[in-house]
Structures are given as structure tokens and as C-alpha cells.
Amino acid sequence: MTSPSPEPYHRPDLLRIPYDDYRALPAIANSDLSRLRDALNGRYEKPASMSGALGLGTAFHTALLEPDLYEGGQPGINDSLVWWMVEGVRLKPELVDLLDAGTPEPSCIFTEPTTNTLCKLRADLVVPETDQGYTIIDFKTTAARDYDHFLAQCSGYDYDRQAAFYLDALRADRFLLVGVQKVEPFSVFTVEVSPHMLEEGRAKYLRLLRFLQPAAQVPSYLSDAVRDITQGLSG
After folding, report:
1. Residue 67 maps to which CATH number?
2. Which of 33, 102, 195, 219 is placed for a possible disulfide with 125 were both Cys, Cβ 3.0 to 4.6 Å?
3. Where in the numbering of this chain does the Putative exodeoxyribonuclease 8 PDDEXK-like domain appear (predicted)?
4. For 57-108, what is each residue's pLDDT tens digit?
5. Rounded to an integer, what is the distance from CA 69 to the centroid of its chain?
6. Which domain, by its residues, includes 141?
7. Pairwise CA distance, residues 108 & 149, whole Å
8. How many domains does the chain have?
9. Is 216 part of a structural domain of the chain?
10. What is the rounded CA–CA span in Å between residue 138 and residue 116?
11. Is 192 helix (H, G, I), strand (E, B) or coil?
12. For the residues of 61-77, what is the DSSP string, one character each?
């Protein structure tokens, strides 16, 4: 007697929803895992309000990915700097091709199978069909001096964790991290996340997700962070 064939995998649907609606989804995001990591490192802070001055990174992402939504003249933002950074990206033909073909700022909700945790993500750019397969791209503003400096930051800032979390959820073929200098000469550093980086990133996100399981033995110094994060799962 033959065993039944496994159910075919279906990628979670990509949702085009406003950011506030995404934030309200009762699921664990990569940003929640960063808060838990900070608690492990003894520097946990309760999440601050999203109100206030627009950040350079947010302004840059809007100008690059959704330029029709960009509003100039925001307090504390140098609009010329933002557009110089965008121009730096658009001087790279391979990135322009991805921008033209991709879906910007898609969200999805999914169940991480190892821990059975309901999770969510919001990618910068997803390009399902390229000559190298299903591709996710994330743009980072950076003060890195050169490519090697940015590559080192990818592990130090846990960009490898984000890459693995997103790639595993969408069963993507590759994940590109694009660092854009926020100072002259506004160089662009593109890192294709390697299998080794993905393995390390996967170990990072699974370790953190296990702390959020109902039966997990949580050290006292993590209890505030775990409580704050899991309370959000009730919607």
C-alpha cells in the first residue's frame, strides 16, 4: 500500500494593504523578533509610537518603491538626499529591471511550520519571475564604507535572519540585500544572501520563535518582551 502524496505547497498570497492594516494583523513579524533579540542582549524597550517625524529610511523606501506617494518637505528630511539615493539605485540597470517587474511593499501572513507560529512579513519588493527564479529584494540605507563593510553588517544587524524568515515563508529562490549609502558617493552594494548566511539566519529566527511558544521556559529577563509581543496576537 502506497502512502498518500504530500499536499503540494502553496505560497501565501501577497496582499497589497496599507501599512497600518499590516501592523494590525495578529501575527509575529521580523520586527517582533528584533525586539526579543534586544531583550536577550539586555536592551529591551517597549515599542514606541509610530507617530512623529518621518525617518530617512522610510522616506527613501517610499521614494524608491512608491514614488507617487512621496510627500516632500517633511520635517527633518532632506528631500535632495532622498532622491540622490534613489538615483544611485536607478543607475544600476539590473535593479531597475527588478523594480519595473516587481510588486512593491507586499504583505503576507503564514504559519511557520517548525514552531507552528502564525507569522507575517512585509517585503520591500517581490519579483516572482526572473531568470534566477522567485526573488525577494530588501533595500537598506547604510553608512557602510564599501561592499565588505556592508556584507559584515548583514550578519551583525541580523539581515540574514530577515532574509531566511522571508525566503522560507515564500519559498523564494534568492534574497537580495541592497545597501544604499546615505552619504556621498551614494554607492550601492548588492549582496545575494548565501546558503551559509541563510542557515545562520534560520537558526536565529527559530531560536527566537521558540521563546514565544506557550509552553516555553522563558528566563525572567525575557518575560516583559515575550508578554508584550504575544499580547499583540489577540488582535
Report:
1. 3.90.320.10
2. 102
3. 92-210
4. 999 999 999 999 999 999 999 999 999 999 999 999 999 999 999 999 999 9
5. 20
6. 19-42+56-211
7. 31
8. 1
9. no
10. 25
11. strand
12. HHHHH-GGG--S--TT-
